[in-house]
Design goal:
Blueprint (H helix, E strand, L loop, with lengths): L1 H19 L7 H18 L10 H17 L6 H11 L5 H25 L5 H14 L5 H21 L2 H15 L3 H13 L33 H8 L9 E4 L10 H12 L5 E3 L2 E3 L8 H21 L11 E4 H6 L10 H11 L6 E2 L4 E3 L5 H24 L5 H37 L10 H25 L8 H10 L3 H7 L2 H11 L16
Parallel strand pairs: 2-5, 3-6
Antiparallel strand pairs: 1-4, 2-4
Helix pairs in contact: 1-2, 1-8, 2-3, 2-5, 2-7, 2-8, 3-4, 3-5, 4-5, 5-6, 5-7, 12-19, 14-15, 15-16, 15-20, 16-19, 16-20
InterPro entries: Glyco_trans_2-like (IPR001173), Glycosyltr_2/OpgH_subfam (IPR050321), Nucleotide-diphossugar_trans (IPR029044)
Subcellular location: Membrane
Keywords: Glycosyltransferase, Membrane, Transferase, Transmembrane, Transmembrane helix
Length: 535
């Protein structure tokens, strides 16, 4: 529902721009949609043999990604980045095919970028000239002048098509562009379902769409009016569609990449432990888009990976921790405790607590990691962690009010949750203030560094060296879980790791905010999907 409303608003704005003209003041999403529209137009007017053996859908995706990458790089084409786009979109391609497709994509991206800049009323002559030089360097048979003429001709034909297209035709073309620029999880799953169904010996996907009026309870009903969406609500609707022969259910996010051997391990544990193996939680490394995130998200991703790999095995000895993804649980346990709670913001934490309180089952550690993304911007990071913090407090309130669970168990969980939650958040926030306060006092002359004992300077210097070495170790250790990036991007990203004194203040800030909002009775109550980096 939300995606449909967003798309309708974007389509209305772009149609007005294309039919009435005017100044461009579009958002990033609108620019991406317009770029995808122009990419499809270019393919309609160009010779598609140049992009064989890509399918039309793959051609559109590759051309869109190439044009966007060139725009973001200000015309500095990186051949390796274009090759990565081709490998990601069509893994079946051979190296010689990629060698042939790269210059063709560069040449087709030129009129797309030039027309986009013209529609945005921007002077792109310098950018286009730089791109022409890159394209002719990659495609030797074409001189720069010939390619410039071809670019101009194709751009004019595309502009003419847009000029004579009706509003209905533009809306139809924009609907196709949305599936390229802003695909929903449902569209991606449906595309993969059809792809898998066309081949033998591939997994069978079942695509289930949740009705807008489903009340969210396991075995619930449709109410006739819209019900706020949550992850727990969607899962409760999907459970009845599972194969009745299944014993274990696995839970992953849409962008998760599980370890290839995790199913073998779970099968072995189930066969050897039997009914004693009920629920397991594995580590999750939110670092796959590490090089595409901001400095605070980088530090947060590294710290979370360390916590999950090194601390989770010990943490699971004290609390029934469930983290939302890379979870395996028995069908019998899930149904026995009533599925997920559709009303809480952290349905995973609630599931772990109820598995012990109601199901008398303690999660065990799953020694196989899964990788996923972390929010690329601090705004997305803040909203995600604010939801986690608010949901954490929400589950604590729920446990406190649950008179059906044994009092001894409830008191134990509340005590552990209190120390690991509000107390730890407050302490971390106060400690994070110390470097900033010391820095401010030093800059304003209120703190004389000479008054600090020599041994303190030695300790701080040693800590800096230790942190540098530890940061380098972590990057090398988790590098295989990160998507590749150009060397310049990696160098800049590594430098951002050393913003820890500043980042350390912002990391616990969402949790501190959740405490404050709870005290003010303004805690968030709706579940918001976390923005991700395009893959």
């Amino acid at each position: 529902m939300a995606a449909r409303k967003t798309r309708a608003a974007i389509a209305d704005r772009l149609i007005r721009l294309l039919t009435d003209g005017g100044e461009w003041d579009g958002t990033e999403q609108e620019e991406a949609t317009l770029l995808a529209l122009l990419a499809r137009l270019a393919l309609d007017e160009a010779d598609l043999d140049a992009l064989h053996p890509l399918t039309l859908q793959e051609q559109a995706a590759c051309l869109f990604e190439t044009a966007r990458a060139l725009l973001c790089a200000r015309g500095k084409a990186d051949p390796q980045q274009i090759r990565q786009i081709l490998r990601r979109t069509a893994p079946r391609l051979q190296e010689r095919q990629i060698d042939r497709l790269c210059p063709a994509l560069l040449a087709l991206a030129l009129p797309v970028i030039e027309l986009l800049l013209r529609l945005q009323r921007k002077d792109g002559s310098a950018l286009v000239h730089q791109l022409l030089a890159c394209a002719t360097g990659a495609q030797q048979p074409l001189t720069q002048e010939v390619l410039a003429n071809l670019t101009y001709t194709l751009e004019q034909r595309m502009a003419e098509l847009l000029c004579h297209a009706s509003a209905a035709e533009l809306r139809r073309r924009l609907a196709d562009a949305f599936r390229i620029a802003l695909p929903t999880t449902q569209e991606i799953v449906e595309r993969k379902r059809l792809e898998f169904a066309a081949h033998r010996n591939l997994p069978a996907l079942r695509h289930v769409q949740v009705p807008y009026d489903f009340d969210g309870r396991l075995g619930g009903e449709c109410t006739g009016h819209e019900v706020p969406s949550t992850k727990g609500r969607a899962l409760n609707w999907a459970f009845p569609f599972a194969d009745p022969r299944s014993e274990m259910w696995a839970f992953y996010d849409a962008e998760s990449r599980p370890d290839p051997d995790v199913l073998r391990y779970v099968a072995w544990r189930r066969l050897t432990a039997g009914d004693q193996f009920q629920i397991a939680q594995g580590p999750v490394y939110q670092i796959r888009n590490f090089w595409q995130t901001g400095p605070i998200s980088k530090v947060a991703g590294i710290f979370q990976a360390i916590a999950h790999e090194w601390m989770m095995p010990w943490q699971l000895r004290e609390i029934p921790f469930i983290g939302g993804t890379n979870i395996f649980a028995t069908r019998e346990l899930i149904l026995r405790i009533g599925g997920f709670d559709p009303a809480v913001l952290t349905e995973d934490m609630d599931l772990g607590a109820r598995a012990w309180l109601q199901g008398d089952t303690w999660p065990e550690f799953l020694p196989y990691a899964s990788s996923e993304q972390t929010p690329p911007t601090y705004r997305g990071f803040f909203r995600q962690r604010l939801r986690w913090g608010s949901g954490y407090l929400q589950v604590c309130e729920k446990i406190k009010a649950d008179s059906t669970a044994p009092a001894e168990k409830r008191h134990y969980l509340l005590r552990i949750y209190w120390w690991r939650g509000p107390v730890a958040w407050t302490l971390c926030q106060l400690l994070a203030l110390l470097p900033l306060v010391a820095m401010a006092l030093g800059l304003t002359g209120h703190l004389d560094a000479r008054a600090v004992p020599d041994w303190v300077h030695t300790v701080l210097s040693s800590y800096s060296v230790f942190y540098l070495a530890f940061a380098l170790f972590c990057l090398l250790h988790y590098r295989r879980f990160m998507d590749p990036a150009p060397r310049k991007v990696q160098t800049a990203g590594f430098a951002q790791i050393f913003l820890l004194p500043i980042s350390a203040f912002f990391l616990p800030l969402p949790y501190s905010a959740s405490l404050l909002l709870k005290l003010l009775h303004r805690a968030p109550t709706t579940w918001v999907k976390t923005p991700r980096t395009r893959e």
